[in-house]
User: Fold these one by one.
Assistant:
Number 1:
Amino acid sequence: MIIANNVSKQFGSLKALNNFSVTCNKGECIALIGPNGSGKTTFIKTILGMVVCDSGFVTVNGFNIKNDWQYRSNIGYMPQTGRYPENMTIGQVLEMMQDIRGQKNNLELDEDLIERFEIKSLLNKRMRTLSGGTRQKISAALAFLFNPELLILDEPTAGLDPLSSEILKEKIIEEKKKGKLILITSHILSELDDLVTQVIYMQDGCLCFHKTIEQLKEDTGQTKLAKAIAQVMLNN
Amino acid sequence: MKKIIKYVIIDILRNKIILAYTAFLLVLSFSIFSLEDNAAKGLLGLLNIILIIVPLVSIVFSTIYVYNSAEFIELLVSQPLKRRTIWMSLFSGLSSSMVLAFLVGAGIPVFIYQPDITGVMMLLIGVLLSVIFVAIAMLAAVKTRDKAKGIGIAVLLWLYFSLLFDGFVLFLVFQFSDYPVEKMMVVVSMFNPLDLARIMILLKMDVSALMGYTGAVFKDFFGTGIGMLLSFSVLLLWSILPVWFSIRKFNTKDL
């Protein structure tokens, strides 16, 4: 579903992505792991077209993202830190997104998270008054709202309270069962254990490995993802 | 595109600056017209105000607005929308609100006191100037990432167009006063939309005699139909080119 081919991106003298190639297919739930500054978020932003790569190309569903923009209607994106127009209320933001995305495709809305996070009671709050956690909830709700085939979650549980993070994890598992492609970055490896099927490990903008989780555990002789990754980092 | 323009305009109206600008123009125009006993003189006074205030408010407000919409733009870019659509909607929303504010603020008094071809032409030029300076603001805002720097550049650009350019032209005329530079002046004036606007209005008002021999040369050129058409095309170009460059930049910008 996503094919990245020799993607490179440079910010000043920093190579955020260096000949990065990877293929992700439908029905997979992939953890994007790597140290800080290894290019995970840059890669995600490249898929979304927010960062324009210097060389190489990315295709989503067979469309080269350079020339196409409609492919984004199949993507739900939850950013690392959700930034929203400060003087709009939550209700207005939700309404605006539905206005822009919803009607065109006549998709059924998935308001599951809006209900479970009890966002309905906050609709009149302005975005600037929200706490980091509430913003994360809005981001999550928006990412799942349009029933996208591809979910990109950048540090989804950072800043969420334990209850909300459980809700979000349950939701991710439900969506995974529906056969969607899910890309997650996280530093809390223990909670990825029961979610992901594959691991992409990045370092300095390069792909270190792309393995299924069973393969990784077998190669490192560990039973937990956290231990396995620690082992890999040590070996590096 | 219409949907996004709608949200931009709602957002602009919600912050009260644009309403204050309208009210300010309204008060200013009415007081200028009622101070002068002759409406044509009033129009001349209004012209000078328009040439200073309209570009300043347009460029500063638009630059700050674009920077403040960073979150809004970021949110939209990850949605199924073309970048060109997002940028054009921002431009259309900003310029239509500036134009509307100008038409209400200066248009109503002009139509009451001076409802003739000169008045209409002045409104037309004010509208064009609003759009041009919104366009220049968008270019300044997309080129620089830093907000303070971007606003600084916008203010400097305004200063350049309204003061520095004239100083530069005067210097040139003074240096080359032994040569016949009057025809050159027509070309040089094309490089500053404010100068072009000022000359067009002054000629329409038949006060070109004030400008001496240069005025006569201007009259020969701008007085003709082709000259008028050409200068309006140049003004249109001044509004299209900055937007075009800013779209090209925005299309490859990392957010």
Number 2:
Amino acid sequence: MEVTLQNLTKKFPGRGRKKREDVIAVNDVTFKIPDGELIGLLGPSGCGKSTTLNLISGLLKPSAGRILFGEDDVTDLPPENRGIGLVFQNYALYPHLTVKQNILFPLQNLKGEARPSREEMQKKVYEAAGLVQIEDLMDRKPGELSGGQQQRVAIARALVKMPRVLLLDEPLSNLDARLRLQTREEIRRIQRETGITTIFVTHDQEEAMSISDRIVVMKDGIVQQIGRPQQVYDNPENLFVAKFLGNPPMNVFEGRVKEGRLYLGEEAVLNLKGAADRKVYVGIRPEGFVLQEKGPFSCELSGVEVMGRDISVVCKNASSVNPTVRAVIGTDHEVDTENDMIRFSLVSHKVFLFDRETEERICFEAE
Amino acid sequence: MRKSGRSSLKSNLKSWLYLLPAILFLGAFMVYPLIDVFVYSFEEGYNSASQTYFGVGTYNYSYVLHDPYFLQAVKNTFILVIITVPLSTGIALLISVGLSSIKPLKNLFQTIYFLPYVTNTLAVGLVFMILFKKTAYTDGFVNLMITWFGGNSVDFMDGPYWAKMFVLCFYTIWVVMPFKILILTSALSSVNQEYYNAARVDGTSGLRIFTRITLPMISPMIFYLIITGFIGAFKAYSDAVALFGTNLNASEMNTIVGYIYDMLYGDSGGYPSYASAAAILLFVIVLTITCINLLISSRKVHY
């Protein structure tokens, strides 16, 4: 089911005693989700991503704008008539019911012709349980399950009615690191198998990048960028998106463009075309540094972290916005920790320029 | 091994030392009196002034069990318990559900419903008496209402047994309600909103949400109220005194605790042996009912 959001806005009344300004949680959000895709709503906490999800689910009413499922306008429909499945952050499994009864619960709410027969219900419950592989837990209570198993039960409960759209609110935040990896692949698999358009909310960029067909990056209720994960990573539209994606995060410097050269401090680190002379923010991905003895960019070396797969070089530079600069280099390079200084050359497509005022991306061509 | 044995003995001694104050107080003021009452109940013709008794046996029990006043008190107490506990819990549940579903003035209403709890029982009894009492000058407020609607006035305070029992039950329910409402509203507000959201997304009807989600979620609190309600109602005494005065035997409104009190200090008092026997009987009754309650609740309360 294609999901369309048109100028979606949600205001909450202000709580202050004197300043009663409305809080705009979601601000004029417009985007379209193609049928059968897995979408990650990504942003820092308080950016309005959960509110957006609750608007799509119908638990919240938008202040303005429309929501369309395919051709149907569902903006004024209550949640139960939208055909959605919702998985809550804390799963919200009914603690007094067994796993089976929990999954059965949505079916038993159906009335009239929509209500399946007893056998059909059983069949659907076991189908949903089979999809998330929990058939052997059916008679347990949620309290007797691990976090990962509870998560699966919650997904099965959301899937049992075969919703048109599946919504997941921070599905992995309550799981430990190992389980998180496993569960996110599981979500991917379930989504592929069912083909249900799925929207999930997360603040973890790695999570969103790894399994989403598309990611929607939000900040302060405004959509910053929408696109395929790699595309957004390689072509961030502004400084926020650039800083938010990537682990370790991007290094940001204060620099300037002068006569076709990019200066960091007094060092001309890159020759470029198509950018006018001005002050800029320079974002360099950790993998954009190449160790080179005579490289144009020098830093004060403070340490080396060995990760096994690669090496993190931690250093300092006067023009860096952050206290430290972090460069990730391959293990085939030797870093002489005796030296105080270290020199790099830069990979031009890992270097991004942003306007100092608007923080928008400035495009350039490297020479 | 000896060394560790000795050190464990030492730490045991220490823990007993820490427990000593509590054990002393509880022993002196709870356990000893309990045992003493038990002993008294088997000492026939005990005289508290001379500290003497005639013999040991079960005569006290047989006397109490054959005393029509005691049987009347048992009957009254059971009627009171059976009527007031379910009714007060049910009505309190309805009111708390109502209270938690309204938004404006919620706190005000909660305060109003809690006010009876901080009011003195005897004062409330007096007000009830004025409402229900029929005197030579006036029929009382309640009778006024009844005659308005075309009924016959009833003497609630000195009239037929069922009328007096009605007033006692009405009064008891009214007095115990605030506490139950307080407990239930807090239990209702502690149910995670996410469960209701999940139910809403699944299109659960209001009635089904209440019976399948809300009730099971607050069931531990409901059972707590039922158990304490039973115990409280079995120990009722001051309520009856507030309405009908101290001579409860004459007005057929005595309770078991009232009977015990009368046996000790009332006009017919001075029989600590009979009082002890009655007290032990009450203890047995309450213990049995509480055990049954716990048995049922362990089967019905799921988590």
